[in-house]
Design brief:
Layout lengths: L1 H17 L6 E15 L8 E13 L8 E17 L4 E10 L2 E7 L4 E7 L2 E10 L2 E2 L1 H4 L5 E2 L2 E9 L4 E10 L11 E2 L6 E2 L1 E12 L1
Antiparallel strand pairs: 1-2, 1-14, 2-3, 3-4, 3-5, 4-7, 5-6, 6-10, 7-8, 7-9, 10-11, 11-14, 12-13
Amino acid sequence: MKYLKHITLTLLLLGGLTAGAQQRFDASAFFGASFNQIDGDNSGSYSHLGLRAGAGTSFFFGWDERTPWRMVVELAYAQKGSNIQNEVLDRRIALDYVEVPIMMSYTMLNGSLRLAAGVAPAVLVGARVADSGVENTALEQNFKRFDWCPLTVSARYLFSYHIAAELRFQTSMLSVTEENASGSYRIFRENKGSFNRSLTLGLAYCF
């Protein structure tokens, strides 16, 4: 956790110290609620509630600060997982990740609206699986340490000088589990397994 604090402070300081220098960099801190599911676990609803919080910075390319294109780099703590309840199974999966989204963004409406897309590589820092309240350690150990390529898209609207609302969608493109007897797939059938999917609604303080 100390590394997370150090990186977060670095991002905030970088944005704050350079904001006055041609506005090449900006910074933000964000917090929101995420609605999650895992594709391939026989549950199709966003029933697992989690939190997402972190900090980020963005910067424009070249020497023209009027360009609408910016690169966005963030560091975030994200809770994901799923709740499965049917006739034969009552399972709750809670996954904690530290992720580093890297996105390209486009700003419009005089800087009020920012649309972004990219990837958010993540490290699994905690996994908890319970079947009818009983811990399932075998399934906990089946989740991979890294989620290398989650696709992420977001829309952020700045409705005051510092406060913005953000809607974000994210889905894993590679399986997050080691062994997959069954499941869903992404892009091609050989890429089969379990895939995180989340929808996040949150607020950001921008400076």
